[in-house]
Amino acid sequence: MSDVVVVDYGAGNTRSVGAALAHLGYRSTVSADPGLLRDARYVILPGVGSARSAMAHLSVTGAADALRARVDAGEPLLGICLGLQLALEDSEEDGGVVGLGLVAGHVRQLRRGRVPRLGWAAVEPGNDVYYFAHSYVAHTQQAVATSEGVTAIVRSGSFLGVQFHPEKSGAAGLRFLDQCLSRA
Amino acid sequence: MPLPRLIPCLDVAHGRVVKGVSFVELRDVGDPVELASHYGRGGADELVLLDIAATPDETATMTSVVARVADVLTIPFTVGGGVRCVEDARRIIESGADRVALNSAALADPSLITAIADRFGSQAVVVAIDTQDDVVFTHGARVATGVGTVPWALEAAGRGAGEILLTSISHDGRRAGFDLRVTAAVREAVSIPVIASGGAGTARHVADALRVADAALVASIVHENPQGITGLRREIEACGVALRPVQEEKDG
């Protein structure tokens, strides 16, 4: 059995997450199977695509309920980029989308600076620099780290969400992923 | 704003990285996976792979290159050349690329920008513009379109592009510095990030470009010595442009 299940929602760049996990020596599977998502040791909800089509896909496959059950049971779930944004109550994207509701708060469009916000930026507290690529951002009391004033890391129960892409952030990103997995 | 990015560009033909002057006399300079991995470890902030020989019957070759690059690379990369429909973009992104670059196909059908952005997000769509005398050129910079560079950049951004990759044809390959004027004009007009391309000859050129753009594309100055990118970063920083701190990455 795989150590990690990467959630398949039809438009994700799941291959890069799998490659980063392989660098760290973890076996991973890409799946939307609710049973696998409930029982896996660790689950990652990756992030490329649009909120509406991702939520529709997660609902139809039963993955949405499985992810909620998982977090209710205190099992670890890591959301990356859109995967973090989907965990909130709702998002402004695509004219308004209801999220998984794992984390209290809302997702709003970025309104300052160049959008999409693309590139490497520091995450505080800490000294590490990670790769970001986003046009929306989480507004939540559960934010535990920020980057240039926007939410970078969210923690709520067994859910951990990152706005940056650890799988695309070189050595710093691999180190971050390794810490997430080894603590789980 | 995020830190300015240094982006090596690999021209790929028939599954190999090539180098040439004006699309003739292409010389094989190496394996894309090996070179991408070198650049990744050496401190590139991102990579661009351009399929310069893109033909429909070579789709499978490029898809396999993209997948193998994705397996070794832990930084983002963009793939351009031969992206003509949403299905092309889907194939490339699902193979592990972060973004696709559109050029002639977007000019022929601007709704393609929106269709790909709707499916994969604006951050996944780069619109590449080849410019000379403020006019857009297509087909390997050979055909003048009569479309103004700044108006086209604005339209592309309005239709959902997440970044403009702006190549100055007259500066490209001459290694005498970037076209700062047109780069600044485009960046001023749009609210999305802009990558400057064409003309990198020295670290000073790149530093100058990074003062007016969000990223700079480099090709020939790094291809002669892929390991030299670490030194190039240091020289750019010595010119007063801060880049991300790069740590030594172990082989995976």
Q: What does this molecule look like?
A:
- The complex is a heterodimer of chains A (184) and B (252).
- With 184 residues, chain A is an alpha/beta fold.
- Chain A has six helices and 13 strands.
- In chain A, strand 8 and strand 9 (129-134) form a beta hairpin.
- The model of chain A has no long low-confidence stretch (mean pLDDT 94).
- Chain B has a single domain (5-238), classed as TIM Barrel (Alpha-Beta Barrel).
- Chain B is built from ten helices and twelve strands.
- Chain B has helices spanning 32-42, 59-72, 86-94, 104-108, 111-120, 149-158, 180-189, 203-212, 220-223, 229-238; strands at residues 5-13, 16-21, 24-30, 47-51, 77-80, 99-102, 125-132, 135-138, 143-148, 163-168, 194-197, 215-218.
- Chain B has an eight-stranded parallel barrel, surrounded by seven helices.
- Classes of the chains: A alpha/beta (184), B alpha/beta (252).
Question: What descriptive keywords fit this protein?
Answer:
heterodimer, A: 184 residues, alpha/beta, Rossmann fold, 7-stranded mixed beta sheet, 6 helices, globular, B: 252 residues, 8-stranded parallel β-barrel
Topology:
The complex is a heterodimer of chains A (184) and B (252).
Chain A: E1 4-7, H1 14-23, E2 28-31, H2 34-39, E3 42-45, H3 51-61, H4 63-72, E4 77-80, H5 82-85, E5 90-91, E6 97-98, E7 106-109, E8 117-122, E9 129-134, E10 136-139, E11 143-147, E12 150-156, E13 159-162, H6 170-183
Parallel strand pairs in A: 1-2, 1-3, 3-4, 4-13, 5-7
Antiparallel strand pairs in A: 5-6, 7-10, 8-9, 11-12, 12-13
Chain B: E1 5-13, E2 16-21, E3 24-30, H1 32-42, E4 47-51, H2 59-72, E5 77-80, H3 86-94, E6 99-102, H4 104-108, H5 111-120, E7 125-132, E8 135-138, E9 143-148, H6 149-158, E10 163-168, H7 180-189, E11 194-197, H8 203-212, E12 215-218, H9 220-223, H10 229-238
Parallel strand pairs in B: 1-4, 1-12, 4-5, 5-6, 6-7, 7-10, 10-11, 11-12
Antiparallel strand pairs in B: 1-2, 2-3, 7-8, 8-9
Helix pairs in contact in B: 1-2, 8-10
